[in-house]
Design a protein that fits this description.
79% helix; 68 residues; mainly alpha; elongated
C-alpha cells in the first residue's frame, strides 16, 4: 500500500472537517465554520475554498491512493 504524503493527509483532514460541517448543517442547521470565523468572512471563504480544492485533489488522486 502506498504511504500517504503530507499533502494527502492535509486534504483528507480538510475533507473530514468539511464533511462534519455539512453534517452539522444538515442535522442542526449550524454552519460551524461561519460561527467560528464569521459569515462569509475572508477566512471562512478560504476554508471553504481549501475544502473544495481538497475534494478535487482526492478525486483526481483516488486511484493512486487506493492502489496496493
Amino acid at each position: 500500500m502506498n504511504k500517504l504524503n503530507t499533502l494527502d493527509w492535509i486534504t483528507l483532514i480538510l475533507l473530514v472537517i468539511g464533511g462534519l460541517n455539512w453534517g452539522l448543517i444538515g442535522i442542526l442547521d449550524l454552519d460551524l465554520v461561519a460561527v467560528i470565523f464569521g459569515e462569509m468572512s475572508i477566512l471562512s471563504r478560504i476554508i471553504y475554498l481549501l475544502v473544495g480544492l481538497s475534494g478535487l485533489y482526492v478525486l483526481l488522486t483516488l486511484g493512486r491512493l487506493g492502489k496496493k
